[in-house]
Design brief:
Elements: H1 9-37, H2 41-51, E1 57-59, H3 60-67, H4 71-83, E2 87-92, E3 95-103, H5 105-125, H6 132-151
Antiparallel strand pairs: 1-3, 2-3
Protein name: MarR family transcriptional regulator
Pfam families: MarR_2 (PF12802)
Length: about 160
């Protein structure tokens, strides 16, 4: 067995700063979005995925993969959103086991009303603090890490 490759001091500082930033930024975005629109960050994530499709509908399994959520978490969350009239579910005529999540007019209205303030919050908390070069660097880092994560993606559970 090999010894662990511990982070050096610089890496550890960067890692801990990243974790703190991620935690605090996510919490602040969630609170502001909730206060401004009544949507949770999870609601917003689902609605964004749906609005990214021209017909406002996506297969449930495809949505779970895009959000990196377990099927049970997604199912419970979609039930709550459906009760609020933001989405509906439709059976898939080609595949009896599959279903679609469909954006409702109320869901579209909710995200259209929430998005401008949410974008302003993202600008205020993140991008207004960075230079153009730092934004480019952030993008490069994110893409490199995402590529690595996709290379090592474990198979998705379907149960």
């Amino acid at each position: 067995m090999t010894d662990p490759r511990w982070l050096d001091e610089r890496q550890q500082c960067a890692w801990r700063s990243y974790l703190a930033m991620h935690t605090q930024l996510t919490a602040r975005l969630h609170r502001r979005l909730q206060e401004d629109s009544g949507l949770s960050l999870a609601d917003f994530d689902v609605l964004v995925q749906l609005t990214d499709h021209p017909d406002g509908r996506v297969r449930i399994l495809q949505l779970a993969r895009a959000l990196q959520w377990e099927k049970s978490r997604l199912s419970h969350h979609l039930t709550r959103m459906q009760r609020r009239g933001l989405i509906t579910r439709q059976e898939c005529p080609e595949d009896a086991r599959g279903a679609f999540v469909v954006l409702t007019p109320a869901g579209r209205q909710a995200i259209e009303q929430a998005a401008p303030q949410h974008v302003e919050t993202v600008r205020d908390l993140l991008f207004d603090q960075l230079t153009a070069e730092q934004v480019d660097t952030l993008h490069t880092i994110a893409e490199r890490v995402l590529t690595r994560l996709q290379e090592n993606t474990p198979p998705t559970r379907t149960t």
